[in-house]
Structure formats: C-alpha cells, structure tokens
Amino acid sequence: MFGWIIALISGALMSVQGVFNTQVTKASGIWAASAFVQLSALCVCLAAWAAAERGSLLAVFQVQPKYMLLGGAIGAFITYTVIRSMDMLGPARSVMLIVISQLIVAYLIELLGLFGVEKQPLVMRKAVGMAVAIAGVVLFKWE
C-alpha cells in the first residue's frame, strides 16, 4: 500500500513541478530553467544525504554497467521535454501523454528484459489495459 501512496505522490509532484518549471522558463529560458531545476535538486539531495545516509558519495561509481550513470543526463532532457510539452499542450494533455509513454516504455523494458530488468511474459490483460489507457487519451483530446 505504501508503494501506491508514494507513486501517487510522485505523479502529483511531477505535474506540479512541470507547471512551476514552465513558468520559470517564461522568465529565463528553457536551459537556464532546466539548469536551475537540476541545481536545486542537487542541493536538496545533498542535504537529504547529509541528514539521512552519510555513506560514500563516490560509491555511485561502482555501478555496473557504467551507462547507468546517465540517469542525471536523462533527467535534464526529461525536464526540458516536460516544460516544452506543458507549454505547448497544457498540463492535463501533457501529463496524460507522458504517463502513457512511461507505461508503454516501462512495459517494453519488462517484456524485453532490458537494462538488467527480469524479462516478463506478455500478459493480454496488461496489453488491453494499455489500449484502454491510450483510448482514454484519444477520448480526452477529442474536441
């Protein structure tokens, strides 16, 4: 149950962050806003690490394979694409498409066993659920 609550909070925070970042972009520019977002995230993470963990910061470099360290670089492009999509489509449409994209890519990662994730079999119920979600986006967008 706790995992569900955390996931719901994450989705809500992503939506609010996207709106905030879009407004910051209007005052500064997209890459300046993205840099500020990443810098403020770094500050919060370092403070949380200092308060809660205190393990070695350099231990992250022990990860294998090394391409897993690209998560932060991907995060910069996530910030950019969320800002641009919210500016062009509005928060509701943007988030719906982002969530559908996340769902499809996450399921493909599971089906194909990519990036060290345990390979899962194709389950028709999940495929139908994804189709219903996509249909919901089409229905929501329909004017």
Order of helices and strands: HHHHH
Give a count of the beta strands, DSSP E runs of length 2 or more: 0
- Helix/strand/pairing category: mainly alpha
- What number of domains? 2
Q: Beta-strand level of the residues, as a percent range? A: under 5%
- Cα shape: globular
Alpha plus pi helix count: 5
Write structural notes for this entry.
With 143 residues, the chain is an all-alpha fold. It folds into 2 domains: 1-89, no CATH class; 90-143. The protein is built from 5 helices and no strands. The chain has helices at residues 2-28, 30-53, 71-89, 91-112, 124-141. Helix 1 packs across helix 3, helix 2 (30-53) crosses helix 3 and helix 4 (91-112) packs antiparallel against helix 5. The longest helix has 27 residues, at 2-28. The mean pLDDT is 90.
Short description:
The protein has 143 residues and is mainly α. Helices cover 77% and strands 0% of the residues.
Topology:
Blueprint: H1 2-28, H2 30-53, H3 71-89, H4 91-112, H5 124-141
Helix pairs in contact: 1-2, 1-3, 2-3, 3-4, 4-5
Feature tags:
single chain, 143 residues, mainly alpha, 2 domains, 5 helices, globular
